[in-house]
Design a protein that fits this description.
By secondary structure, the protein is an alpha/beta fold. It folds into 3 domains: 91 residues, Ubiquitin-like (UB roll) (Roll), CATH 3.10.20.740; 80 residues, 2-Layer Sandwich (Alpha-Beta Plaits); 364 residues, Fe-only Hydrogenase (Larger Subunit), Chain L, domain 3 (3-Layer(aba) Sandwich), CATH 3.40.950.10. A 5-stranded mixed beta sheet has the order 2-1-5-3-4, sandwiched between helices. Strands 12-11-14-17 form a 4-stranded parallel beta sheet, with helices on both faces. A hairpin with a 6-residue loop joins β8 and β9. The longest helix has 21 residues.
């Protein structure tokens, strides 16, 4: 690491030469505001002009998010010239920003409001040219409100650079500029995977998840039997909604809060994850033994499924036919659970709490029903759960930490189910069960370290009783392209590939709490590098604490097959737990 000597406000520092002025100042304890720069220069278009500083010897003010540090650089942040310029920049942004903050869904999380306070901006100083807001509420996962957009470009760069898709761009010119898919199409009419990564980085309420709390309220009014099921990644982040540090395990308090919200049952989707492993694992073994289409590719991430249908329909034969865990669990709730409890499936309302906006799209797919009964009725993100808890007046800090998920047919889960929420988790869970099926004994170390880690692409060769299984794991569509091109060309060496739509997996899903680098406390200075790892550690720790760590050893899963399904890939399993996919390329040509 090459170091350079710089001065900030007259004080000397040594910093990494690869940093921008903005990053260097933040690392040295100076909190310069910014609205277009997110992390390590990614998403930075130097467009908002909120991070302007003086650099001795430079002509005019410098956008600190785009300027690299250099040897001997002298940076002045608090001069009157720089202070006035930053305030003016924010006031100009405010002049074109749609008001009604009380009704804004980002109220309390809006970075524009926080930056305005920071620079002392005065709303109304400039009168902007207010163009009619374009509001897109058609897509099930994401809402776009151009009236809230400040043209920072974060969403554009995230979609292009992080996911390698690039469906968003600046439309029109001058005062009429706005951000949208090409030709101002709806997200529903664009090759959008609904991953919500654009929502995560939007500093205002211009991009938000499609809120479904009202669906839960209506189900309560109708007297439905409401079953809540929570994805594993939610526990790794829900505490952040209540001011706790990133990496805080929120499992027990979350369960306590859900019980107090009045759900008839509170289950963990880890049960559905274990069920997925039984079906997907046996599907893989059958393909290997019978010469089926390989590599088999996982189907747990609906964002990835959307991407595949749009851009790589050629790999549909490679896809596992398994539904995702929460859809499987919803189908079992409205069949097996309903039968045992003598409930009419039409009276059961299943609510999935997910770290994901694409799950909202997934549950609305026409394939996600059995005999006309929808598997899942509503999907709430981690953020929506936080709002629901706050709306109910529940004090998070006073919640007990000794409550458990309801133990009623679908309550038990394994450590393998827990790690589904992090990239590599599905693969590791599948390998644990595949090892047992092929050898008749458990893997001595249980963990498969080779598929762990947050790298974009990981690969390994696993020897199981003389059978070598070549596997690959990737997250984020920019990485997925590398593997998919080989599959498409018939050159892939792998037997099994896990793909997650969001970088890092579900722990970094589009419905997770916002991570705002500028407003993190000083002790979390390095969190930009490690927040995904901190959330992942919550899931791996949960796995290690479980008495049962393999999906096939889950007693409730064993009972389900014994009493109801018969065996993995049975006729009833195929009806309830499997699905098919559709090529969408003709609708959205590249």
């Amino acid at each position: 690491m090459a170091l350079v000597n710089i001065k900030i406000e007259g004080k000397s520092y040594q910093v990494d030469s690869s940093l921008t002025v903005l990053e260097a100042c933040r690392k040295c304890g100076y909190n310069i505001p910014s609205l277009c720069s997110f992390h390590k220069g990614r998403c930075s278009l130097a467009s908002c002009r909120v991070c302007l500083v003086e650099v001795v010897g430079a002509r005019g003010l410098v956008a600190s998010c785009a300027a690299p540090v250099s040897e001997g650089m002298e940076i002045i942040i608090s001069s009157q010239k720089a202070t006035d310029a930053r305030r003016n920049s924010v006031e100009l942004i405010l002049s074109n920003h749609q008001k009604n903050c009380l009704q804004c869904p980002k109220n309390g999380q809006c970075e524009l409001l926080e930056v305005s306070k920071m620079v002392g901006a005065r709303d109304g100083k400039f009168i902007g040219v207010q163009t009619p807001a374009s509001i897109d509420e058609v897509a099930p996962g994401i809402i776009r409100n151009s009236g809230k957009c400040i043209l920072c470009g974060r969403c554009i760069e995230t979609c292009k650079e992080l996911q390698g898709i690039g469906i968003l761009g600046f439309e029109k010119r001058g005062f009429n500029t706005f951000v949208a898919p090409a030709e101002n199409r709806s997200f529903a009419k664009s090759p959008c995977m609904q991953c919500g990564q654009c929502v995560l980085v939007c500093p205002t309420g211009a991009l938000m998840e499609h809120d479904e709390i009202h669906l839960v309220d209506e189900a309560k009014r109708q007297g439905k039997f409401i079953v809540c099921q929570v994805a594993p990644a939610v526990r790794s982040a829900i505490a952040e909604e209540f001011g706790e540090k990133i990496g805080t395990n929120g499992t027990k308090k979350m369960i306590a809060a859900l019980h107090r919200l009045g759900f008839n049952r509170v289950f963990d989707v880890n049960f559905g994850a274990d069920l997925t492993i039984m079906e997907e694992g046996y599907e893989l073994i059958e393909r290997i033994k019978k010469g089926g289409v390989l590599p088999q590719i996982t189907s747990c991430s609906p964002g990835w499924i959307n991407y595949m249908e749009y851009f790589y329909p050629e790999v549909i034969p490679n896809m596992s036919t398994c539904k995702s865990p929460h859809q499987m669990q919803g189908a079992i709730t409205k069949s097996y659970f309903a039968k045992v409890h003598n409930l009419d499936p039409k009276d059961i309302f299943v609510v999935s709490i997910m770290p994901c906006t694409a799950k909202k799209f997934e549950k609305s797919r026409p394939e996600m029903e059995v005999d006309g009964i929808r598997d899942v009725d509503a999907v709430l993100t981690t953020r929506e759960l936080g709002r629901l808890i706050k709306r109910a007046g529940i004090n998070w800090k006073l919640l007990p930490e000794n409550e458990e998920f309801d133990q009623d047919l679908l309550g038990e889960y394994s450590g393998a189910g827990v790690i589904f929420g992090v990239t590599g988790g599905v693969m590791e869970a599948a390998l644990r069960t595949a090892y047992f099926v092929l050898t008749g004994k458990e893997h001595e170390k249980i963990a498969f370290e080779a598929v762990r880690g947050l790298e974009g692409i990981k690969e390994a060769s696993i020897d199981i009783n003389g059978t070598t299984i070549n596997v690959a794991v990737c997250s984020g569509m920019k990485n997925a392209k590398v593997l998919l091109e080989d599959v498409k060309a018939g050159k892939s060496k792998y037997h099994f590939i896990e793909i997650m739509g969001c970088p890092g997996g579900c722990i970094n899903g589009g419905g997770q709490p916002y991570v705002k680098p500028m407003f993190l406390p000083n002790e979390d200075d390095d969190i930009l590098e490690t927040y995904r790892a901190k959330r992942a550690s919550v899931l791996y720790s949960e796995d290690e604490r479980q008495k049962v760590r393999q999906s096939h050893n889950n007693p409730d899963i064993q009972k389900l097959y014994k009493d109801y399904l018969g065996e993995p890939l049975s006729e009833l399993s195929e009806k309830l737990l499997h699905t098919h996919y559709n090529a969408n390329r003709e609708k959205f040509p590249r």
